[in-house]
Specification:
CATH architecture of the largest domain: Up-down Bundle
Distance between the termini: 26 Å
Order of helices and strands: HHHHHHHHHHHHHHHHH
Largest sheet: none
Shape: globular
Strand content: under 5%
CATH class of the largest domain: Mainly Alpha
CATH topology of the largest domain: Growth Hormone, Chain: A
Helix content: over 70%
Oligomer: single chain
CATH superfamily of the largest domain: MFS general substrate transporter like domains
């Protein structure tokens, strides 16, 4: 641990490189799958609503995992949790490449989401713990930039690979790269000393939280399977209420919700994360379908357009980190959030005859806003949290981030189901699809701008 105390030491550079690559391949596959979903759907004969479930279940797995991964990291160690997450992600990627039907792909994407969230929580914790305080914002922004780079190159690489060798090869490639990353993390990341006593996992709370999220998600998105599925929605809400009550009264909760009351500014910062990610995480499927089924681009060319957002996120994330170290991080994150909301509203102007440059320009503005939001918000939100609570706070932050993405995909799936039923997106149904997309964008844009107020509230609490 002594070697990481030098800001520019070789040991610290190696750790940052390992964490950076660990944060890369999960978002690479996340955005890549969004780009190739039309190809998967065409190959397996899936309607648009079922394609949306591929994204919904991935985010559901992430949300459940983020709820539990902070405690699991406390129990077994952050490094062990990270290595287990990477190993499982590789295994599920192989199974995805062998999947014969959508009914197999959907639960496998749920399992991949669980593994991906475990990786994200562990990487976030290690980024905060191992970085010297005076360059913490820069280190976090560098590690976060890997997420944006993975999101950026995922659509292009996966789209190109799909055009050349088919969509199954994408999952075999990510499994091979994941094995290399597993060896790197094992060699470079130092073992972490446990803070305080070893803690246990409350099985009842875990079942309540996971079961509640599952019921709410399925009840909101799967009514096209059978109308009775809608009954799962109020049941899920009730289960989640029981989960929150048990967590609040527990002396050793999985998610220490009382931490929100203990740390100034933490509730506002985490609420801003939920709202911002909830407003744009579900848009990738919309624009993958729009570019390929409405504008007629192939998977590779659609990937080139979809990567614009993440490329701008990748470029501006380190810039935002430096500004957060020099100025007030809440001001930087709030300006980014406002730009996200305005960019989402501008996407409502798209129609069947929109030029490709208009799509790319709106994606670039959205990526710029997201880049200025993420790292400064993380630095401001976690900067006041005591070290012994960082694993739990990182898990809670990741849980709200992925739950925001889950809500985004739930709304997206509901709107597609409401307007299109079980129809596929074709030139004949493109008008109906565009109506669903525009109403969703309006809802997301207004929702995002409302969250700017919460981000501003956090200004008075940051140290």
């Amino acid at each position: 641990m002594a070697s990481v105390e030098q800001p520019l030491s070789l040991r610290l550079k190696a750790v940052i490189a390992a964490l950076w690559t660990g944060n890369l391949f999960a978002p690479f596959l996340m955005s890549g799958v969004a780009a190739i979903l039309p190809s998967i759907g065409e190959s397996l004969g899936a309607p648009a609503v079922m394609l949306s479930l591929v994204m919904v279940c991935y985010n559901l797995g992430q949300s459940i995992s983020h709820m539990l991964s902070g405690r699991i990291a406390d129990m077994f160690g952050v490094k062990r949790t990270l290595l287990a997450g990477v190993g499982c992600f590789c295994l599920f990627s192989v199974f995805m490449g062998l999947a014969p039907a959508m009914e197999v792909i959907i639960p496998l994407r749920f399992a991949q989401g669980v593994a991906a969230a475990t990786i994200s929580c562990a990487v976030t914790t290690l980024s905060v713990v191992l970085a010297p305080p005076h360059i913490r914002g820069q280190v976090i922004s560098i590690v976060v930039s890997a997420v944006y780079l993975g999101l950026a190159i995922g659509p292009l690489a996966c789209g190109g690979l799909t055009e050349l060798t088919g969509w199954r090869s994408v999952f075999f490639l990510i499994a091979a790269l994941g094995l290399v990353e597993l060896a790197l993390l094992h060699h470079v990341i130092p073992e972490q000393e446990r803070e305080g006593d070893r803690r246990s996992l409350d099985g009842i709370s875990a079942l309540l939280g996971a079961g509640g999220l599952f019921c709410v998600t399925m009840g909101a998105t799967c009514t096209f399977l059978h109308p009775a599925v809608t009954a799962m929605l109020p049941v899920g809400v009730l289960i989640l209420a029981c989960f929150v009550r048990r967590e609040w009264t527990s002396s050793d909760p999985i998610l220490d919700l009382k931490l929100l009351a203990k740390v100034p500014g933490l509730p506002d910062g985490m609420a801003a994360v939920f709202i911002n990610y909830g407003s744009f995480m579900g848009l990738s499927l919309f624009f993958s379908l729009y570019l390929q089924q409405v504008l007629g681009l192939n998977a590779f060319h659609a990937g080139m357009i979809l990567m614009t957002q993440s490329l701008f996120q990748t470029f501006f994330s380190p810039v935002a980190g430096r500004l957060a170290d020099r100025y007030h991080p809440c001001i930087v994150s709030t300006s980014g959030m406002a730009l996200c909301g305005l960019s989402i509203l501008s996407l409502m102007l798209l129609d069947e005859g929109s030029p490709v440059w208009q799509v790319a320009l709106s994606q670039a503005a959205l990526g710029t806003g997201a880049g200025f939001f993420a790292a400064p918000n993380m630095a401001a939100t976690l900067g006041n949290v005591p070290k012994e609570h960082l694993s739990v706070a990182s898990g809670l932050l990741g849980c709200l981030r992925t739950m925001g993405g889950l809500v985004s995909h739930i709304v997206m799936a509901c709107m597609i189901g409401l307007f299109m039923g079980d129809s596929t997106v074709t030139p004949e149904t493109s008008g109906t699809f565009l109506h669903a997309m525009r109403y969703t964008l309006l809802l997301f844009g207004v929702f995002n701008l409302m969250g700017v107020w919460l981000s501003l509230r956090a200004l008075r609490h940051h140290r």
